[in-house]
Amino acid sequence: MIIQSLLDTDLYKFSMMQVVLHHFPGAQVEYRFKCRSKGIDLQPYIEEIRSEIHGLCQLRFSEDELDYLRNLRFIKGDFVEFLGLFHLPEKCISVTAGQEPGEISIEVKGSWLHTILFEIPVLAIVNEVYFRNKAPDLDYEEGRRRLEEKIQLIIDAPDMANFKVAEYGTRRRFSGEWHHEVVQTLQKQMGVNFAGSSNVLMAKQYGVTPLGTMGHEYLQACQALGPRLRDSQVFALEKWAMEYRGDLGIALSDVYGTNAFLRDFDMYFCKLFDGARHDSGDPFEWGERLLAHYRNNRVDPSTKTLVFSDGLSFPVAMDIHRRFNGRCKVSFGIGTNLTNDLGVKPLQIVMKMVRCNGQPVAKVSDEPEKTMCDDPAYLTYLRHVFDLPAA
């Protein structure tokens, strides 16, 4: 099977899941899959994808895996005990042919607590099923050559001594096998420049740091779970701080765009959170705005971390590093460019929450094509409430 461990997912799924257990255990949600790549025919692989998802739903956490999670400083004992009983409910996911030619529909409906772990492994399954059918004879030599070039860029650059990059590529990887090789290669060759992996299984297996805090779905769900829509971002950040008491302190900034984020990210949050993560829009403009925002709120930007993770390549990350290094702490999460850069065009696929407790939820980022919502009227209302420009 493609997925052989429930740890084969991103750390932020567990950090969000713990918040759900402790604060929103009754929340009901819906997720929907979307392939943004044009002209892709996934319909021939529906049965193969279903078979892999069936296998995913048979998995349980082993005692060794639970012990690993238990030893993470921010994971609480009752959450680990819950995971000891956990499995993904197959009745909550469906895979069918979509309405457009070649399109498939993957929908997840059910308890947020019991379905939150579907997204990452399902995306990894779709990727690997597609590529093992479309490029069955592809060897990894081209990928190895490209990976070596990226690593050498950092090693050869005298101003990259404190460049920090993490591997963020589970959901877009060419295959699990290649993913393992990438992490091992980065660990062996990059030394202190390699910060760790978002993938918990990789972190456990290779002794690297697991990295991640929150994803878009967390702030989206709070649109339905908070007291009122306008305060949903503040509500989400406050609940996060309540759960982690200063740990996992990187705030996600682009669910409503940078303007709305900075309006809500006041002096209290500037001081409380360790930094923020960029995931859409111009990274240089975003970084400058964040540094100015910290200064305006009487916070020394050099004490804060800016994490960049929006479709990065190594040359772009190096340029960002040169701009902000020394002015703040800088870190990078690179996904597709590490785990699916082998000479074939990667898929652009996502699986986003679209409803929580029966109410539409949405992400309205600084890049319009990343907006995803199944209710146009709600999206218009959301834009009005957060004073966002019309699409």
TrEMBL record:
Gene that produces this protein: pncB
EC number: 6.3.4.21
Domain Nicotinate phosphoribosyltransferase N-terminal: 7-127
Keywords: Glycosyltransferase, Ligase, Phosphoprotein, Pyridine nucleotide biosynthesis, Transferase
Job of this protein: Catalyzes the synthesis of beta-nicotinate D-ribonucleotide from nicotinate and 5-phospho-D-ribose 1-phosphate at the expense of ATP.
Modified residues (Phosphohistidine): H216
Organism in which the protein naturally occurs: Advenella mimigardefordensis (strain DSM 17166 / LMG 22922 / DPN7)
Post-translational modification: Transiently phosphorylated on a His residue during the reaction cycle. Phosphorylation strongly increases the affinity for substrates and increases the rate of nicotinate D-ribonucleotide production. Dephosphorylation regenerates the low-affinity form of the enzyme, leading to product release.
Superkingdom field: Bacteria
Catalytic activity: 5-phospho-alpha-D-ribose 1-diphosphate + nicotinate + ATP + H2O = nicotinate beta-D-ribonucleotide + ADP + phosphate + diphosphate
Protein's name in the database: Nicotinate phosphoribosyltransferase
Entries under InterPro entries matching the protein: N/Namide_PRibTrfase (IPR041525), NAPRTase_N (IPR040727), Nic_PRibTrfase (IPR006406), Nic_PRibTrfase-Fam (IPR007229), Nicotinate_pribotase-like_C (IPR036068)
Biological pathway: Cofactor biosynthesis; NAD(+) biosynthesis; nicotinate D-ribonucleotide from nicotinate: step 1/1
